[in-house]
Amino acid sequence: MRGAAKTFLIYAALVLTMPAAFSVDRAQDGAVARSAILLEVGGAIGPATTEYLRQGFKAASEREARLIILRMDTPGGLDSAMREIVRDILASQTPIVTFVSPSGARAASAGTYILYASHIAAMAPGTNLGAATPVQLGGGGTPRPDGSGDRRGEDKSAPTTSPTDTLANKAVNDAAAYLRGLAELHGRNAEWAEAAVRQSASLPAREALQKGVIEIVAPDVDDLLRQANGRSVRIGGNQVKLETAGLAVVSIEPNWRTRLLAVVTNPNIAFILMLVGVYGLIFEFMNPGTVISGAVGAICLAIALFALNLLPVNYAGIGLVALGIALLIAEAFTPSFGALGISGVVAFAVGSIFLFEGDVPGFTLSPAVIVAATSVGAGLALLAGTAAVRSRGQPVVTGNAVLLGRSGLVRAWSGTSGQVHVHGERWQARAAEPMAPGQRVRIIGREGLTLLVESEAERPRSE
User: Fold this and answer.
1) Co-location of 368 and 412 in the same domain
2) Same domain, yes or no, for 232 and 373?
3) Is residue 463 part of a domain?
4) If you average pLDDT over each of 42-51, 278-287, 350-359, which comes out highest?
């Protein structure tokens, strides 16, 4: 009976404490839900930015956050990365506010599209947005608002467009329609959105508010939350009223994987990794058995190829870089009095300049990196070529020319074969007659890795 009573008391205690435990969990969930997730979007927009924001949106959904704030300061970035971010914003079930902040920040180029895609667009005083014209790939004049290229000094009776102009106009028209559609989706100024694309127009914060490009001008996040409270936004076809008063702001930092992705997708880092990989493999092929150079080269090249796959690469540029390296190697092994070397340096430098397409902010090679990489390649070719020229006047130190006629010492012998010590090395040897350990022999030939020897006493003294 005592055991039964004890068991009953335990169960009773569990039943009585369950509502309390449940209420604590509900309170904790409520505390999490009463939060706003803050994500920092700084620098050029690329693959790492997309990965970071995607993780932030997922974390906000898991925590049931009431709001996501993208605090932005960007000169622009890759079109592909921007469109992925816009798709994620439009698919988000959590309201997203893009806040251009702090004062002095900007949302240029790709940043303007992200701002327009957000449910609430906000800016801090002293910030600006715009200049959303897509970067042209391959030149062709700056598009005008009517879609025509710059034709100053040309015959006006000639055809009005060239293939390059047509491609540029298509890119501008597509971007204008895209940004205009985002503006209409959230009831913002669509006319100015088109001007931002066709005329590279820009606006400061106060003027953007007056023209209906943004909804809020706030000096900080706290004031932003205060002004956003009670506003209605459209999410998934439904109108949702924001309740942002008193939200706790939770900042989410990028994880180590995102930070690493940001490093390797830096064009300068990717370019250097590619060169280290190529030179490492070349050194391994020239000196088989080094292992370390081959392993490091393979790892660096694999990482570089992964990064280049995510970047706007011009394959003609890669081809010129590869040709330049090949010519520099050829100059090192077959000195041509500089002809191959100079051609290799020129091909390498030109390929490096055109390696990345367009002029996207943050995704171009630094001139200093190009000069340094070209100088290193030319220097290695010069050193290798100098060593090759000097070696021509040196005596041969390997091969049959060194072994034939050299004297050796028998180390072990059985019948007509054994081992001899020659030139600091131990070789398998064979003779027409038995030898004795300690006997001096002379090498008269070689068959693969076996030396043919004879006793030194058998050779005439005149030899």
Assistant:
1) no
2) no
3) no
4) 42-51
For residue 245, give the CATH number of its domain: 3.90.226.10
pTM: 0.70
C-alpha to C-alpha distance for 270 and 279, rounded to whole angstroms: 14
pLDDT tens-digit series, residues 399-434: 566 677 788 889 998 888 999 998 778 888 988 888
Q: Which of 74-88, 155-169, 428-442 shows the lowest per-residue confidence on average (mean pLDDT)? A: 155-169
Residue 435 belongs to domain with CATH number: 2.40.50.140
**What's the domain range around 409?**
400-458
Per-residue pLDDT at 340: 79
Same domain? 26 vs 134: yes
Block residue for tokens 């490091």: 296
Cα 121 from Cα 115, distance rounded (Å)? 6
* Residue 267, burial from CB neighbour count under 10 angstroms (0-12, 13-18, 19+): buried
Our CA angle for 249, 255, 259, nearest 5°, is 120
The CA-atom distances, in angstroms, between 101 and each of 208, 328, 342, 406 are: 14, 49, 49, 81
| pLDDT tens sequence across 6-33 | 444 444 443 333 333 333 333 334 444 5
